[in-house]
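User: Can you model how magnesium ion sits in this protein?
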Amino acid sequence: MPAAAKSPPPEMPAQAPGVGPSPVQRALRKLGLVRDIDFALYLPMRYEDETRIVKLADTRDGDVAQVEAVVTESEVVFRPRRQLIVTVDDGSDTCQLRFFNFYPSQQKQLAVGARVRVRGEVRGGFAGRQMMHPSVKAAGTALPQALTPVYSTIAGLAQPVLRREVRAGLARSVLDETIPAEFAPPGAWPLRRALNFLHYPAPDVAMATLEDHSHPAWQRLKADELLAQQLSQLQARRARGAQRAPALSPVASPDSLDQALRKALPFALTGAQQRVVAEIARDLAREVPMHRLLQGDVGSGKTVVAALAAAHCIDAGRQCALMAPTEILAAQHFGKLVGWLDPLLAERGLRVAWLTGSQKKKERDAMAASVESGEAALVVGTHAVISEKVTFRHLALAIIDEQHRFGVAQRLALRGKAGGELEPHLLMMSATPIPRTLAMSYYADLDVSTLDELPPGRTPIVTKLVAEHRRDEVIDRIRVQLAQGRQVYWVCPLIEESEAMDLRNATETRDELAEALGDQVGVGLLHSRMPTADKQTVMESFTANRLQVLVSTTVIEVGVDVPNASLMVIEHAERFGLSQLHQLRGRVGRGAAASACVLLYAPNEGGRVGEAARARLKAMAETSDGFEIARRDLEIRGPGEFLGARQSGAPLLRFADLTTDAFLLDWARELAPRMLDRHPALASAHVDRWLGSKAEYLKA
Ligand code: ADP
Ligand code: MG
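Assistant: Here's the modeled complex, given as structure tokens:
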């Protein structure tokens, strides 16, 4: 026998070879419960106190109580519906038990004269005490010493079965310390003690400290979890440090594309832009692949930073790719970058290429050929840019706009595109600022550059909340703007499940506005269903001020840039997410004119707006600071939704809460590098315990 057979690792519930998993095992797996440690880390959502027997006379209405009593009456009645009614007496008082669903075995258990232990919620009705569907056991067995855990479960997995499996997994788990004593989290318990306690707490625990996770046992779990997150991201970062990227030395020549572009720009860079451009240039000059997130509020000028990074890359004789999640956004970038760079590239025998999925094959083939030959020094498009069929001659820099909409798969697809053993440098741009704690936690594997300064000359946007029935006043406002030669956006909401309805709704709004505003005003319509060419035409007409009003669904959400637009109306604003509203609002206030954003909202039948919607509208009215908006958005939505695609595959924090556990996050951030340096084996064991196979996603 091989040596391993002597001590089989009890990783999986026993299973005969050749037999598939049982329904219970399948259900457990669905809950992510495979390894012993997964069970140990699967913590109760609440507890039941079965440690005490109380007297009926001492219970009050609403108490959950456990009593031992003798059955004095038991009968099945059929009116108003079939039910089992049982009376029990514990010497202090009586209580009626009612069961609408019951088995013959239960009826037998509750025969007159039986002594039973009953647990349920006491209701003090006019007919005396009652319990509906209490749990019933034989009386007299030993009372448990600890609270009874209740775990969140799914169909097909009964609570007692899950409880038994968790208990067994916990007992089998090797809970050796992974955190050396000198690093232990302040005030927290050792892991083994913490887990045993959290599954089976002593009955005298202050329940509130379990519920709000402030108990030292919880502190330990949260600290452990945050440390695992930090360690895994640091491991990923260090692993990347071993990869190679083409080192792109800056070219200090007045003829460089970089210099030419700076000269051609109609404005001077802000201090923040200069700083960030320099940070990126330093990264690009290194042989290690850059992994940088560029964040800045809407309108902070990320595009020109991207263009300068591209110029740096092209000056070094390499190719750059820029990707956006939607075609319209990619087209906007393309327009800007072509405007800036194409004339300069043409002088150098180079060009900007355009690649999307909707392109005609002939055009795409031509573009792909110029990418392959290297003539296309810059390639702009949707994720078609990284499709397998596109071969780069010498890609060195990939820029991803709206990174949160790109998942791990796309990031992985970039690998190998630089040719040979080399990885491209990666610059990710985020349209939404990321709250600090979230960035430190979920983005710890990235370097972050922040544009914390808006270009000069912007006038603050006034935001108004207006109820739907005052729509006419809003149309008057539009007239005022138009009379001043300004342009207006009108955004219609997405009606879920029905693009056809969106379209009808947006079309009707366009017609309504066209009629209200008269023949002199051009009112255009932009909808996600339109063919790309038509969208482009409409966008161009609006940009050129041939159209004065643009009605659209959220396709203008990101990136579009028409400085003459000074009013944005968002219809059914209560249906939009907060970041989305902020992005939309950022489309105005780009020029010197005073700008406004009107959020039209429609109360529902009850005359109210839902709580979350109200919080979003309130935030919009109160602040236009993107970082503050992001913080509130996180508060309203929680990290899961906030993180979008980054979260797919990336394990969310289950226990720690970044708003209350910031100090534990600091502790973990500080400890992670020291632990990797001094105790690499413990660090790996720690990550494996917490993340297991899920740590893989970070290798992307
Ligand atoms: P975002 O960060 O939202 O992508 P953009 O790159 O679209 O912002 O820039 C917003 C607007 O500000 C654009 O019209 C851009 O040309 C302009 N802009 C960028 N940088 C500056 C600057 N330093 N001075 C003046 N205008 C600028
Ligand atoms: Mg942008």
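A couple of observations from the model: Confidence is low (pLDDT under 50) at residues 1-14, 645-649, 696-700. The domain at 461-623 is CATH 3.40.50.300 (Rossmann fold).
User: Helpful, thanks.
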